[in-house]
Each structure stands twice: as C-alpha cells, then as structure tokens.
C-alpha cells in the first residue's frame, strides 16, 4: 500500500511532467531574445509595413508567451502579405495557444494550400488531429510529412504519441526510437521511451532518462523519473543521489523531498532522517497529504505517538477519504 501512496506523488511533481550522470545545462536565451526584440523594434519603426519584420517579432512574442502582441503582429503581417505559407503556420500556433482551435485548423489548411509539400504544415495538421484524438487523420498527415522528408524526427515522435494513445506500445517504441535515430537530441522522445520502459520494469529506462538529461539537464521531470525508477527498482542510494541533483535545480520541490523521506523510512530504515525530509517537504507545501501520513508513520516508528496522531489527523483534514490514515489513527486510539 505504501508503494501505491508513493505513486501518487509522481503525479504531483509532474503537475508542479546510468549512475551519476554529467549533463549539459542549457543557456538562458533571455538576453539574446531581448537584443533581438530591441533590434526588431527599431527596424519596424523605420519600416512599419514590412511583413517579414512583423512576422519575426510575432514569433519572439509567441516564444515569450506575450500572445496578444504576437497575435497583433502576425495578423498585421497577413493583412499586408497573405501569400506566405509560413505566416499562416505561425498564425495557427498563436490561435491554438489562445484556444481558437477551429481557426488554427483553418490557418494550417491555408498554409497547406499555399505549400502542399511543406513537411512542417503536414506535421502541424497531424499534431492538431492528435490533440483532437482523431488519430486516423493524424496518421494521414504525418505519413505525408514523412513522404516529403523521411528523416523528419518530429513526425516520427507524433506518430509514436498516436500509437501510444491507441495502446500499441510496440509501434510507439519503434516510432520513438526512429525519432531519436534522426535527431539524437530529441528530449521528449527519450522521456517517452523511458516512461514506457519504466512501466515495463525494463532497466533500459535508465539509459533513456539519462539521454534525456544529456539533452537538457534542467528538466526536473527527467530527474524525478530517473530517481523514481531507481527508488522502485532496488537502488535507493542512487535514487537519493538523483533526487539531490534535482533539488540543486529546484530546491523547493516538495514531492522530491517527500520521496527521499520515503526512501529513508521504508528502504533504509532511518525514520529519524525521514522525519526531517517530510518536515522540509511540508515547509514547501503544507497540503502535501502523503508527507503528513508518512511523517506520522515515522513518528510511530520513533515511539512518538502524540505527534503521529497529530499528523494522521492533519492528513485526514486535507483528505477525509484517506483510509490508511484512518486505520493508523484507530490503532493508536486517536479517534
């Protein structure tokens, strides 16, 4: 049952997605983007009706998640020149980001009318239909993208996602592997492969998660997934090492601190150290129900009945249907 409780935590960290691995850290692009935006602003002042400049500035705003300005620029660019397929393709991204799905689809279709042999537009239409769960149509567009460019990694990745959603794990693995063959730095494909292997208790998960970290050493989801795999497959010390690496990047990651406490409590038989980690986790997130429950259990192990009862009651205050907390509380005579 405690293993089931630990599984709950992985959902929380995702909402917050070999052995020790040296990974590269991605540079912060903020300074470069600011410089580019400043330069574009100056150029647009001198040439306010240049659609290419407006398109480029719209892309920068989009990447910075300033969607209203991105929308304004791309719409103006299209009003000046509606013959550019790339403009419509970018327009579809902005429309999708503001949840205008039907309009996004029309923009992609317009891009395809202007350039039917665009691998990007075909893949984008396939991606849209994937999100709409229309996998048959998605495959049609993705296959067309691959007919145009058989080395297009993104199309293989999207096909893998469609296969995965359809429950065809074998073909999903094949597509994700083909994706990383074409692009050895495709982070999300490595993560998908790692997740599939982890679900199968396959130690190859370690290799895929390690490759994901090689590509992007700042992604906490990869550290968490790798640490959790070690945690659940008999290597608690290595799990703690990976979790510690995660905490160097995100020092207030409460679910990770909870999991280290869980390891000390159930894997390394050190309830005192476990209490410290659960307490630290709760300082960062006072609504982390499992941390209250497991700290209560650790207090039980330490013979601190009153503190255990207090934590079980707090867990039930946050989650009244927590049956394990109810059971422990009854055994301690706390209700």
**What is the CA-atom radius of gyration, in angstroms?**
25 Å
Report the structural category. Answer: mainly alpha
The name of the CATH topology of the domain at 27-116 is Serine Threonine Protein Phosphatase 5, Tetratricopeptide repeat
Provide the CATH top-level class of the domain at 27-116: Mainly Alpha
Note poorly predicted spans. Answer: 1-27
Known CATH architecture of the domain at 27-116? Alpha Horseshoe
> Into which percent range does the helicity of residues fall?
over 70%
- What is the molecular shape? elongated
How does the major sheet shape up?
none
CATH superfamily of the domain at 27-116: Tetratricopeptide repeat domain
Oligomer: single chain
**Average pLDDT level:** 91
Give the helix tally.
19
Strand content: under 5%
- The termini sit apart by 22 Å
Order of helices and strands: HHHHHHHHHHHHHHHHHHH
| Strands, total number | 0
Structure description:
The chain is mainly alpha-helical and 335 residues long. The chain has a domain of 90 residues: Tetratricopeptide repeat domain (Serine Threonine Protein Phosphatase 5, Tetratricopeptide repeat), CATH 1.25.40.10. The chain is elongated and about 75 Å long. The two termini are 22 Å apart.
Which descriptors would you attach to this protein?
disordered N terminus, Serine Threonine Protein Phosphatase 5, Tetratricopeptide repeat, single chain
Write a brief structural summary.
The chain has 335 residues and is an all-alpha fold.
Helix-strand layout with pairing:
Elements: H1 2-15, H2 30-46, H3 51-63, H4 67-80, H5 85-97, H6 101-114, H7 119-131, H8 135-148, H9 153-165, H10 169-182, H11 187-199, H12 204-215, H13 220-232, H14 236-249, H15 254-267, H16 271-284, H17 289-301, H18 305-318, H19 323-332
């Amino acid at each position: 049952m405690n293993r089931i409780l630990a599984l709950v935590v992985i959902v929380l960290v995702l909402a917050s997605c070999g052995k020790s691995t040296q990974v590269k850290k991605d540079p912060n692009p903020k300074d470069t983007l600011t410089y580019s935006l400043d330069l574009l602003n100056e150029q647009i002042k001198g040439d306010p009706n240049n659609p290419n400049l407006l398109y480029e500035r719209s892309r920068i705003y989009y990447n910075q998640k300033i969607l209203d300005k991105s929308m304004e620029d791309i719409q103006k660019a299209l009003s000046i020149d509606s013959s550019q397929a790339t403009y419509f393709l970018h327009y579809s991204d902005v429309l999708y980001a503001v949840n205008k799905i039907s309009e996004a689809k029309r923009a992609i279709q317009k891009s395809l009318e202007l350039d039917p042999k665009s691998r990007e537009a075909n893949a984008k239409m396939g991606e849209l239909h994937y999100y709409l769960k229309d996998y048959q149509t998605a495959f049609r567009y993705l296959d067309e993208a691959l007919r145009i460019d058989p080395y297009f990694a993104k199309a293989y990745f999207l096909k893998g996602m469609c296969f995965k959603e359809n429950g065809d794990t074998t073909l999903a693995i094949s597509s994700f592997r083909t994706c990383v063959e074409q692009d050895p730095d495709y982070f999300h494909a490595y993560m998908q492969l790692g997740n599939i292997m982890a679900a199968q208790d396959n130690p190859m998960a370690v290799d895929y998660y390690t490759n994901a970290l090689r590509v992007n050493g700042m992604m906490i989801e990869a550290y968490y997934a790798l640490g959790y795999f070690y945690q659940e497959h008999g290597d608690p010390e290595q799990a703690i090492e990976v979790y510690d690496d995660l905490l160097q990047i995100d020092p207030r990651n409460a679910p990770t601190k909870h999991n280290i406490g869980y390891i000390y409590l159930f894997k390394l038989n050190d309830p005192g150290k476990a209490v410290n980690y659960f307490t630290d986790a709760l300082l960062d997130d006072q609504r982390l129900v499992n941390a209250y429950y497991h700290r209560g259990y650790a207090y039980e192990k330490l013979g601190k009945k009153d503190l255990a009862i207090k934590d079980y009651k707090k867990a039930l205050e946050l989650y009244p249907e927590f049956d394990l907390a109810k059971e422990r509380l009854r055994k301690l005579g706390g209700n």
